[in-house]
Amino acid sequence: MRLAGSWLSKNIGPVVKSVLPGTALTAGFGLLGGGPTAAATYAATDVLGSVPATLLGRYVGRNIKNEGLRNMVETGANIAGSLAGAELGGALIQGGQAQQMAQQIEQRSLVNRLPLAEQAGELAYGTQYQLTGLPDPTQFDQLLAQQLSPTERQLLQGAFVPRV
Fold first, then answer.
1. What are the extents of the domains in the chain?
2. Quick check: 56 pLDDT over 90?
3. What pTM, to 2 d.p., does this model score?
4. In a 3-state reduction of DSSP, which class is residue 102?
């Protein structure tokens, strides 16, 4: 435990310094895309993702003799941590998929000038798949029977029969 603590204290400073340029870029893109709050959120989640991941990459690669390969392991871990941090930052800012879908439904109801309850009721639960206007399965079968020739119907039915 003491050995790991000394390794960590020796490596944390250089790792933080190596992560900061990427964090600054992430914060800059957050500032451009969402303002100061987004910049701070993305910067914080980038550091929270990148520093531990890069430390892990450095620890895993510490016995690799080839310096290029060792750097690739550390860089790959840094990038993975940064991507994970960006996902976390996006979820914190946007509130996750459920909140994003609710926001989209509300926007659609405003654009279509429909009551929100009506707009939400026209979607399959947990999706953006619109149910309004879909034919009843019986009507759909009748429509197919009218539109397809007997040979086409036979081919279509054969496509759905599992072959053993």
1. 2-94, 96-133, 134-164
2. yes
3. 0.57
4. helix
